[in-house]
Amino acid sequence: MRILLFTGKGGVGKSTVSAGTAAMSAARGLRTLVLSTDAAHSLGDAFGVGHALGSEPVEVADNLYVQHVDAQRRFEESWAEVQGYLLSVLDTIGVDRIAAEELTIIPGAEEVFALLELRRMAVSGEWDTIVVDCAPTAETLRLLALPEALGWYLERILPVQRTMVKALKPVLTKAAGVPMPGDSVFDALVRLHGELAEVRELLSGPEASVRIVLTPERVVLAEARRSWTTLSLYGYRVDGVVANRIFPAGGSDDWRAGWVKAQDDVLSDVGASFEGLPVWRSFYRPTEPVGVEDLREVAEAAYAWTGSVDPLAVPDTPAPFRTETDGETTAVRLALPGLAQWVERDQVQLGRNGDELAITVGAYRRLLTLPAALARMRVSGARVEGGELRVTFSRQTTNTESETS
Ligand SMILES: Nc1ncnc2c1ncn2[C@@H]1O[C@H](COP(=O)(O)OP(=O)(O)OP(=O)(O)O)[C@@H](O)[C@H]1O
Ligand SMILES: [Mg+2]
Which residues have C-beta atoms less than 6 Å from ligand 1? Predict the structure, then answer.
């Protein structure tokens, strides 16, 4: 099963290109699902089926199904138990019901549940291709950082909480009348934790990749470069770029000639910025591409630009995170492509705390839990070189203090 995610700045054509890619996959006879995690669903409009779409996949052509994830419903299914408990606590301490409901809605919840829905579809075994039309870049980056971040958090609070609850139960129930969480609350959290781990495995696995959609404009390109680095930091493979809404040359209009020239300049920078990745080109059409056929044509035309790359095949892009052992030392290599173009070397920071490595790139940070074998070793060096961060570990028992470089 192939999972393709499309992201990019607002309005660049993510929905158009993802819908088109899905239509193309379906036309090849692959059972294809395209779903959007963006709350502002527009797939229905692109396919010309309006808002007839529901939270379950709807067939719009042979082999082609579309789904608008109903985050609210998934939220209710997975979080209701935990929320119910939190509400009863807040009620006991006198928090007004409306305010309490606000408080128990976790930030980013909608996005988390969109991911859980993606997982449900992926494990159903029903699909050959799943195309995900993501929200604009910033939200997508937050979304894709969530499974690991939330997993990290749950791993740390779960065992502590369970022990604490056992110890405090008799005291608390008597003293303040605060209800204690039942096993079902913990079970719900444990299940959530497991499902998020699966989401992470699916999305960082070899069959999943992210494509960046952009329009040939400086500001859009700058954001696209940053997202390439950041996606890699979080462990996702980026396997290509779609440059959309390119003005075709021709005619004798100065205004048009001006745009064609300006876009050409940016396009050559796109090529240089995303070296090693296919850059597909999609021209500005005279009308909005709407409906299965139009969308499929847009995608076919774009992917034909680099004829040798099959846009639906599993890419041979290596995983951004790799380890290499050579005698007494092990090197962890984290690809941070495009880094040099937007970040100063000193904006990359590395911290170590026990079995964790905290990597900060500009405003983004990833807490990486080291494999057991590395956790026992000492960091003996770190450098940024050739688009990757390379951290070397030496075999020597660590002392527990943290080291920062
Ligand atoms: N190559 C193209 N030629 C002509 N019109 C296009 C092209 N690509 C996209 N459009 C149109 O541009 C508009 C925005 O496209 P689309 O909705 O796919 O962008 P998006 O990145 O998903 O936007 P959002 O960030 O709002 O989700 C739509 O009206 C779409 O039909
Ligand atoms: Mg969209």
Answer: 8, 10-16, 38, 42, 136, 244-245, 282, 284-285, 288-289, 298
Q: Which two tokens stand for residue 368?
A: 């990486």
- For atom 24 of ligand 1, the residue with the nearest CA is 11
Q: Is 175 helix (H, G, I), strand (E, B) or coil?
A: helix
- Every domain of the chain and the residues it spans: 1-314, 321-395
What average pLDDT is seen over the chain?
A: 83
| pLDDT for res 189 | 74
Indicate the fold that domain 1-314 takes in CATH.
Answer: Rossmann fold (3.40.50)
CA of 13 to the centre of ligand 2 (A): 7
Same fold, 1-314 and 321-395: no
Q: Which atom of ligand 1 is nearest to the CA of 136?
A: 25
Q: Which letter does DSSP use for residue 386 in this model? A: T
Q: For the segment 71-97, what is each residue's pLDDT rounded down to a tens digit?
A: 666 666 666 776 777 777 667 666 777
* 166: its two tokens: 């056992």
- The pTM (predicted TM-score) of the whole model is 0.84
Q: Where do runs of H (alpha helix) occur along 179-319? A: 183-204, 218-233, 254-273, 292-304
The token pair that represents 318 in the structure block? 């290596």
Residue 12 CA: which ligand 1 atom is closest?
Answer: 21
What is the CA(327)–ligand 2 centre distance, in A? Answer: 50
- Which pLDDT does position 403 carry in this prediction? 44
- Lowest model confidence (mean pLDDT) among 273-282, 291-300, 371-380: 371-380
- Closest protein CA for atom 25 of ligand 1: 10
State which ligand 1 atom lies nearest to the alpha carbon of 298: 1
Residue 66, pLDDT above cutoff 50? yes
For ligand 2, a single-atom ion, the residues with CB < 5 A are: 14-15, 42
Instruction: Return the C-alpha torsion angle 88, 94, 96, 100, nearest 10.
Output: -40
CATH hierarchy code of domain 321-395: 2.60.40.790
